[in-house]
Specification:
Layout: H1 2-24, E1 50-53, E2 59-61, E3 66-69, H2 75-89, E4 97-98, E5 109-114, E6 126-130, E7 134-139, H3 142-155, E8 170-172, E9 175-179, E10 185-191, H4 199-211, E11 216-223, E12 226-227, H5 236-239, H6 256-268, E13 272-279, H7 284-289, H8 318-332, E14 339-343, H9 352-368, E15 372-376, E16 389-392, H10 398-403, E17 407-410, H11 413-416, H12 438-442, H13 446-449, E18 458-465, H14 473-480, H15 483-492, H16 500-508, H17 511-516
Parallel strand pairs: 3-4, 3-5, 5-7, 10-11, 10-18, 11-13, 13-14, 14-15, 15-16, 16-17, 17-18
Antiparallel strand pairs: 1-9, 2-8, 6-7, 6-9, 11-12
Bound molecules: ligand TNX.
Length: 531
């Protein structure tokens, strides 16, 4: 341990000598080196509602620092403290400790406490005071503590993301932060149907969502090219419908146990999983698995191309609704959370009336199974309950739904579609909604996007990642990062605290953090990345 420490200080002084030597020789700037950007006082993304810097008050995490939990804060708070202790010290370090009822936190502690009297912070808000001798993090609920913990993480140098940060002295800038999110729904969608990614890859994505305070993971589990979840009463869905993907690869599906594991992993990071089974269109994989779902009783072949709009369940057969009920019932039992997404987009093979009646009938099936329905924008003209949620993605009548007291999630294609190319040179992705550079993903206001929908009609924002062109996790990461981080700030930070010039500098400081985490992110030329 000592050898490690003295090694570090030798490296620092050697570095300092090199800087002096370089200055002495007055070398011209090397145009091939990244621009050196001055370290910001903090690079918090999403930025907080209120941040006050107290520069005299730097806190130093050293080998004697302890993470403590105020007595009575509960098991969830202890779990959040455990994450922080792990981050700071690695698995071999000191675990977090819960204080006894009459014990005050000592100096050199990071204290987490649940204080229900702070209800003005809401479910997800927190207060953080970083002083010279201690850090105090308070929230009204464990969710808020978790986000406060992610803030502490981002205030620490990025080297904390390396397990090698063990036993280093890490500085946290002195701050007083009061923070809570603008929107309750801060989502990301993964299309695991067009190409399949396994549960481990989904968990990795979940961890990245949590770092940026996102709280919904919408999984697009079925489409023309693949059915990705085991349904016990309909085994062919996974066995046949899950057997391929775009381009003809082997596909795959989550067993019930794997899916439950994803849900538990997300829940432990305060992320709600939203399962989507797209219907009545985008259903070729189901139609290929069960002939009776087709009006002519004949299954089509499996489909591995990328056209849309050609498939539909047979809406005039009772058998179809029995099928929908079986699927909804089994999936609803796997998710503790209140939502079931029925898709409903891009249906070209039904009359408008047939389509609307289908949506209404599925809504009643979902409600009868104890869940709230979500549908893409096309579902808005149906008779929807105000508790149903509409997800806007292109020009639609979602304003109708707000007028009847319902809520809308904004996923506008030209801002939030992570499968759109960044610029004309991007190899992956599509371009029907336009090219989306980081600034396009960041620089918009949900409250003014649709003139007919005021902020009060919005549940929040979500960034879908459609996977027609994405094969492996690295592809997903390249398209999502850093645009998903921009979306995270759109969803969390008050509009008044957001501006592009400040965001790009803060985001630039996340380059090394993303690299430390091994994320294959797009190094946009709009961002002054630090090394
Ligand atoms: C539209 S967005 C779709 C998806 C495609 C996506 C490609 C939506 C509800 N439907 O089926 O994958 O475009 O960008």
């Amino acid at each position: 341990m000592m050898r490690f420490r003295s090694g570090v200080s030798r490296a620092v002084s050697l570095g300092a000598l090199l800087v002096v030597a370089a200055c002495g020789r007055r070398q011209p700037p090397n145009p091939l080196q990244p621009v050196a950007v001055a370290r910001l006082p903090h690079a918090l993304v999403p930025t907080a509602a209120s941040v006050q810097l107290v520069s005299a008050d730097t806190f130093t995490v050293d080998s004697a620092t302890t993470v403590v939990v105020a007595s009575g804060s509960g098991a969830e708070a202890e779990r959040v403290a455990g994450y922080l202790a792990y981050l700071l010290a690695g698995p071999l370090g000191r675990p977090a400790r819960t204080l006894s009822p009459d014990e005050a936190a000592a100096a050199n502690t990071i204290q987490l406490s649940i204080d229900p009297s702070k209800s003005s912070l809401g479910l997800e808000g927190y207060e953080l005071v970083v002083a010279r001798d201690r850090v105090v993090l308070t929230a009204a609920a464990p969710n808020g503590l978790f986000y406060g913990m992610q803030t502490v993480r981002q205030l620490l140098p990025w080297s904390v993301e390396h397990r090698g940060a063990l036993n280093r002295r890490l500085k946290i800038p002195g701050v007083r932060i009061t923070d809570s999110p603008r929107f309750a729904w801060r989502g990301a969608m993964l299309d695991v149907s067009r190409h399949f990614i396994d549960a481990e890859a989904v968990k990795r994505y979940i961890d990245l969502l949590a770092l940026y305070k996102l709280n919904r993971l919408h999984l697009h589990l079925a489409d023309d090219q693949g059915w990705r979840i085991e349904i016990t009463s309909r085994p062919n869905l996974a066995a046949i419908g899950g057997s391929t993907q775009v381009g003809g690869g082997p596909g795959g599906y989550y067993t019930k146990a794997q899916f439950a594991d994803i849900v538990a992993y997300a829940t432990s990071r305060f992320i709600t999983v939203v399962p989507e089974i797209d219907m009545p269109g985008h259903t070729n994989a189901a139609l290929a698995s069960y002939p009776e779902l087709n009006c002519d009783g004949v299954s089509p072949p499996l489909y591995t191309g990328i056209r849309v709009g050609f498939s539909t369940l047979c809406v005039t057969k009772e058998e179809t609704y029995t099928f929908v009920n079986d699927v909804v019932r089994e999936i609803a039992a796997l998710v503790p959370t209140p939502y079931f997404h029925m898709g409903g987009d891009e249906v070209e093979k039904l009359t408008h009336d047939q389509y609307l009646r289908f949506v209404e009938r599925v809504q009643s099936i979902i409600t009868a199974n104890g869940k709230q329905m979500i549908g893409w924008g096309e579902t808005a003209p149906a008779k929807l309950a105000p508790t149903t949620v509409v997800q806007h993605w292109k020009r639609d009548s979602s304003a109708l739904h707000v007028a009847r007291g319902g809520k809308v999630i904004l996923s506008p294609g030209p801002k939030t579609y992570l499968d759109m190319k960044y610029d004309s040179t991007t190899v992956l992705g599509l371009r029907w909604a336009g090219l989306i550079e980081v600034r396009d993903a960041y620089d918009w206001n949900p409250a003014t996007l649709l003139p007919e929908i005021p902020e009060s009609g919005l549940l929040g924002v979500e960034a879908p990642l459609w996977a027609e062109t994405l094969v492996k996790l690295e592809d997903y990461e390249y398209m999502a990062f850093p645009r998903l981080i921009a979306l995270a700030e759109v969803g969390w930070s008050p509009q008044s605290a957001r501006n592009w010039d400040a965001f790009r500098l803060r985001l630039g400081e996340h380059g090394p953090r993303l690299s430390a985490l091994g994320v294959n992110y797009y190094r946009s030329l709009q961002i002054p990345w630090t090394r």
